[in-house]
Amino acid sequence: MRKLFLPFCILLLMSGCKKSELDVATSSPSASADKAVAVADYEMEASKSPQVAPSNTISEKLLPDENVSAQPSVTPKKIDTIAKKVIKNGNMKLQVGDIKKAQSQVANILKKNNAYIQTEQFQNTDVDDNLDLVIRVPHKNFDALINSFSDGVGSVLSKNISSDDVTEEYTDVSIKLANKKIYLEKYRDMLRSASTTKDMIEIQEKIRELEDEIDVAEGRLRFIDDRVNYSTLNLSLYKEKVRSSATSKIGFGSRFGDSVTEGWNSFVSFLLGIISFWPFLLLIPILIYLWRKWRAGRAK
């Protein structure tokens, strides 16, 4: 009986171990596989979606170089080809026989060329008369205006014409202005969606700066357009009052009178020049007195 009981117990133990191994084999792989899949999915999601700390302030979002994802996406506006921009300026000095007659001729020439006088200054001296005019004329009529003054108004004493190509500057300012306007609209959109007072204040400051820069750029473009569309000419009309006997074509009597007048004017100028030295003339008697006193003391 003992011999049969012992083998029976061994068989029961062996069957129990096999059953437990079978349960482990059937349950463990499934759980391990599910766990491995979950870990793999987590790692994959982690690699695809890295955690990025959000910017603390709107200022960081507005700075274009620090956080590209936070700044407003701006597509530079394409600028059409800009026509050549050339500013023309000129200076002329004419010697005329009569200022009033020359002024009337200038008015007729300006009317024909659609020009106008911006400033006018007249100066009357003992020697000559001068009429200085700043004339604005359409760019296309500038050369014709210069030729009209050279031909029929008087003798040209001096003439200087200059041209300044500002196409590059005009294009650069136009491109920057267009981009600033796009940025301004983006910041206004950000202002409408701002959630905190701090963000609103910082965005409003950016908007104010952009508006100031836009005003300056637009003013510069208007100035360039004005100078390009209307050229500037500084015209000086000169009339000499005192005729020189060497160049005068009038009779002997008039030339003699001119000579007397010139001599008298020279004498008056000399006399006035001496009088202007009166403080130094007062020193002469003092110097003579001191010299005599010194000489008398030396003789003793």
Automatic annotation (TrEMBL):
Regions annotated as coiled coil: 193-227
One Pfam short name: DUF4349
Keyword Thylakoid carried by entry: no
Keyword Zinc: no
Ranges where the DUF4349 domain occurs: 85-291
InterPro entries in the record: DUF4349
Taxonomy, superkingdom: Bacteria
Protein name: DUF4349 domain-containing protein
